[in-house]
Amino acid sequence: MMDQSIKFDLDLINRYDKAGPRYTSYPTALELHEGFGDQEYRQHIAKSNAAGGPLSLYFHIPFCDTVCFYCACNKIVTKNRKHAEPYLANLCKEIAMQGDLFDSNRIVNQLHWGGGTPTFLNYEQMKMLMAVTRQHFHLRDDDKGEYSIEVDPRETNDQTIEQLRELGFNRISLGLQDFDPAVQKAVNRLQSEEQTFSVLEAARVEGFRSTNIDLIYGLPLQTVDTFAKTLDKILAVEPDRFSIFNYAHMPARFKTQRQINDADMPTPDVKLAILQMVGQRLTEAGYVYIGMDHFAKPDDELAVAQREGHLYRNFQGYSTHSDCDLVGLGITSIGRVGDAYIQNVKELDEYEQLIGQGQLPVFKGVELDDDDKLRRAVITQLICHFDLSFAAVEQQFGINFSNYFANELEALAPMQADGLLMLSSEGIKVLSAGRLLIRNICMVFDKYLAQKQQQFSRVI
């Protein structure tokens, strides 16, 4: 059986803690450019239809009732629920436009509503959005797909959860971040244990197949002791998955983060101590490390997919559906169709204008060349499975791995000396000490990284 353990080596982490991508795609979103537009996207959809296969749909619902100061997502903060109405009307038009371009026999195996706060919408709006989607795309009706939604427990109750299950959702992710009152006040997200756990329990009662809790370490006023208390409370209710993110404090880039007091930020040593505590507590509780901030119960679909060798990573994180082309819908959404990545425009007025003109609201994109596809395969295999067979890559891409990646293999030698990985003539095996630093290992294979590294957050 695959070893899904991690080893926390403080010296290694301190030495390797530098900025780098999260590799939800390769090339990363920084390589998307404005020379790729509506017509180029249509061409890639045609190629995708020729290849066939299932689809994944991502919907961006950008609205939030209040702003969380740590947030770096693309969102629109408003208490006026009517602001969602024109956006939904345009989103439905985009669904129709894109749906008409994809073959109707391509089944949607994966669907995700993110944000923002998708439950900002009321039931009638959510029902209408799902109905329009079903009208233009081939949604499953047997509950075998992976249909997930991000919810804010402050915007959700038992009835909402019942309605979401009725609409076809079977996986749910609850935003929390931290239960400590002082931390919540510092980041402007006041959320009670009762709100959170009642939503989690309702999801179980309604038959959601997977429950995830989002936490963030490195927020203002956090300590090892306070975060341990939050973690203990959540472990008591045993969610299926944890997503525990490293907070990247970049106030120069994200305006809302300027409302956080820099003096309240935990030191790097405290952040590392919190991370070490989290790894120990979750491992002791029986969770396995999937990679890149994610832990899951051993029988969870992600953990099983990793052991069986078919885990995948896309713009929503880890996935069990590597065979799906990803269609992005709504402002700022990013898709992957065929050999291209595509991002929609970011502003509501521009989105409305393009939709009104009958154009796909594409802002930018990038077409992958053969080298991109090769490096993507290598990085995806490493970040999902911590193991890479040279022979498998050579067979798929018709190369000699040691010749093609001679410089990269040389760059990995110090990592082998440090105990992060094991290099052999057959492949690369990431060791327990290297799993928390998997981004560093993947960065060796990233040809675009040198000139872009300052634009990424630190790996730990």
Automatic annotation (TrEMBL):
Domain Radical SAM core: 49-285
Pathways involved: Porphyrin-containing compound metabolism; protoporphyrin-IX biosynthesis; protoporphyrinogen-IX from coproporphyrinogen-III (AdoMet route): step 1/1
Coiled-coil portions: none
Gene coding for it: hemN
Name this protein carries in UniProt: Coproporphyrinogen-III oxidase
Transmembrane segments: none
PANTHER family: COPROPORPHYRINIGEN III OXIDASE, OXYGEN-INDEPENDENT COPROPORPHYRINOGEN III OXIDASE
EC number: 1.3.98.3
Catalytic activity entry: coproporphyrinogen III + 2 S-adenosyl-L-methionine = protoporphyrinogen IX + 2 5'-deoxyadenosine + 2 L-methionine + 2 CO2
Primary location recorded for the protein, binned into one broad class: cytoplasm
Organism: Candidatus Methylobacter oryzae
